[in-house]
Amino acid sequence: MTGNELKELLAASPEECHRRLMKEYGRYVYAIVFNKLRSCGTREDIEECFCDVFTDIFLRFEYNERYVSDIRGYIGTVAKHKAIDRFRSLSAAERYNTHADEEELAELVSDISVDELVDGSELRRILLDKIKELGEPDATILMQKFYYNRKSSEIAESISMTASSVRSRLTRAMGKLRIKLAEAGITR
Amino acid sequence: MKKTDLFDIFENAEDELMEDFTEMSPEISDERLEELLAVSERNYKMKKKEYERTRKDKNKEYDGAVSGVERVKRPAWLAPLVMAASLVLIAGVVLGSTALLRRHGKSGGVTPDLTAVTTTADKNGEITTTKSGSTVTVTTTKAGSTTAVSGTNTAAAAASGQTDSTTSAASAAVAETTAAAAANETASGEQELERYALELYKRSETVNDKINGIGVSGYGDGFLKVSVDPGLGYSSYDYEHNNSQWVDNVKFYLPAADENFTTADELRSYVRSAFTKNCFVYRWLEDNLITAPDDFENGGYLDSEYIGYYLIYRGKLYMTAPGGGKGSLSHEYSEAYPVIITNKTDTSFTAYVAEWYGGSEPYHDLNEATCAEVKYVLDPEFNDWRINDIVTRPPGVYKELYDSRNN
Known about the structure:
The complex is a heterodimer of chains A (188) and B (407). By secondary structure, chain A is an all-alpha fold. Chain A contains 10 helices and 1 strand. Chain A has 2 domains: 3-91, Rna Polymerase Sigma Factor, Chain: A (Orthogonal Bundle); 100-183, Orthogonal Bundle (Arc Repressor Mutant, subunit A), CATH 1.10.10. Chain A is elongated, with a radius of gyration of 19 Å. In chain B, the strands form 4 sheets. A 6-stranded mixed beta sheet of chain B has the order 10-12-13-9-6-11. In chain B, strands 14, 15, 16, 17 and 18 form a 5-stranded antiparallel beta sheet that branches. In chain B, strand 3 and strand 4 (134-142) form a beta hairpin. Chain B is globular and about 90 Å long.
């Protein structure tokens, strides 16, 4: 839906408009918020921040015409600022916890490390390209597991597989990724 | 050299990678989306009220702005004349009241008005239901389990010192009526719990408003001025100059001096009189009760991690300065649509409250209402009910429960 269509919907039914906004941009906001809070926030912190972002967006969308013309851009900006704010307040608390039940899978990535001095921006691009080269569903499984910290059972449910299938695909995909990264000059 | 795990390098990534991250992000289920939406909706409604009020205040201030000084002269004889008139008025009220009481005494008794009912709940969870002319006290120590009921009659005639037989008969009749009413109320523990749930919900609204600066009874002298990070996008009334304009990137705080709290501990206790520690309201409070660093001086800069609604500075509690007057659109409730209680256990229950925002009359049209789903738990710290969560639901949710209860 365009900004203008959403604005019309807002006049007819604010709640429906908000629902559409969240449906349409929810994953985008989640991706941004998660990216900033991954290292310091729990899933609850991330979801709270997600709600704060949408509270802000609902208000701005209603009162600020600029948001109608480039809604995605503005939503991205609001999400980033809110997430950075939350990051600042959370990083002092260091409340981050991993899923203890899946620690053995963490070993799959622990043997690939990168020097901090390598240009982060270029490295991110290469890594993402190599992951995408693995094809679907492996790329998504890998990202959801090691980046989004989802449990294998949760990933399995979302892509209609069993948890054990997800685990075996993860092992194979990490093997392939390791070779691809070595070819690109990224090794231990 | 410090090493970083492979996927950690994605953190704090460039904006252009977000599209890829979005595509590979976990789906948000419809059920979860509705839950997150409900939280955002509720926060949005609260913020919108605040925003509308601030905007209205701002307009009012500019519309009503005047300049110059008006000199007013009062004649010297005005003060004694006003005093004399006041004395005559007071004497009239006293004489009139006496005459009225005597006339009632002769006509043979008093008919108490049993229709005017007020119900109050104190912070210990005790509910008192008072009816004019007679008093029924229903004390609920733990709603739904122990209910002690007592009825007393305080007829106005007895209060005037008359004890003739007519008055006694009237008193007995009133006592009988009161006892019947009390018996009905005892028989209906469920109704008491509904009433209690509503009272606690109303209290929670007052508490929630107040900790957000709405309806605060007063502030102390002086103020704190804080420069904030421009990235936060703060704009405030310029409290330093009588709120005459907006200033960017500055926040003003005033000393807390509400009738319910002047310190951080009192503020916490006040919020705990309605909410559990797990409730989002209490968690919001904790997130917003921030102690300023030791080296902060009034007028200085604070990082965003120190910016919240409250600031504790040198042991004193400050709260965000209001932008002009404060007020809020209160909820209205309909007697025709009482609180509906579900999932009741010894330690928890859920109440559904039909509520209408002020102005959305009539207050009996469920299509105009919103439905609050309020979760109560028995808080072990008080051995009393506290609100653990509030979620706004569409009115259809209440309607469905209401229909199934009445059919």
